[in-house]
Amino acid sequence: MVRSASAILFATGIGWTIDHKARLPVVRSSIVAGRLAVILSSIGFWALWTRDSITARTDTAIFSILILLSCVEKIASMANLVSVERDWVVVIAGGSEPGLQKLNARMRRIDLLCKLAGPLFIALINGASTTIAIWITLGLNAVSLPIEYFAIAQVHRMTPKLGDPRLTPAVHADSSAGQATRYPLGQMKEIYHSFRLYFQHPACLPSFALALLYLTVLSFGGQMVTYLLISGFNSFYIALVRSLSVIIELSATWIAPRAMSRTSPNRVAMWFLSWQMLWLAATVTFFWSEPTAIVAASGLSAGTILSRVGLWGYDLCAQVIIQTEVQDDIRGSFSSTEAAFQNAFELLSYALTIALPHPEQFKYPMLVSVAAVFAAGGIYAYYLRKRRGHLVHVPCTKA
Is 31 left (phi over 0), alpha (psi -120 to 50) or beta? Predict the structure, then answer.
């Protein structure tokens, strides 16, 4: 929760930095900060794990430092993600929407594979030795730091346009904004400008709908995994369904670009959201009507897995819409504000399970999660109706 809160607090500053500073130093700084935070955290975890001679006060101090380092890693990760996925990729694609769709899909594919392979690999090592798992985490980050540092420079050299100045001067902040953010009043003004820019932009609705999908406990994260374990499933089953979920999610990275190549991303996004709403509605209906806990949890797992195609399909479509509609000089500010909302909704999902911690109460956060998806669908449907003048393409229906 503290990590998500830190991302919300620093979102405006991250956006301003991305929009006003040279691209390569910003990304390199995020790489160094993120990797060093993980390396130092690994040392801290090692100290806690071998804490026979550590006093309680030292133990608390190390834990506090670990929380601070996790915030640094989160902020660096957000800066890197916004810079690369919302700015660099657009420039590299060079105005080609099919090229942009392919780049987005490949990056999401790599992201999902790493999210499966990384935790699984470390979990297997941790089963044998926690100390070895900690040192491997440290070593991998130490090795990846120089690789990422020089690889991103190579990408920058291969795409000369990344070194060009912004197409237009940043209109969302005056020349003193960077200095003003040092002071509370100036910082509040900058936050106000960022939020006003975000909500007045035509791409706000698909962006906010995407952020709203982060208000969920229906993913194979800590909350749902805990519920499945309490319901009677073992670690092997959890690993199996998580792996299956990633495989299903990966299918969206092939389906979405092909669908967008045949029609507009605006229309395809509605298809994917509808798919997600359909499966989650069926899942929650089954869950509430099934009296046997383990059967209900099995249905919950199956429905959640199938709904993930809609989630990542919409993610890719919304990303294309935002990338093509948001102007060059405000990409950082717009996308960092979106990231702040994503973290706020993620924070709210954690708060729900803290407020309703008992297994028999899990159905209520689940209902809120489904309601959030339907709210996102409603927001996007309004955007689509406003943009196209209709939701259903009548000629296609008649055909």
Answer: alpha
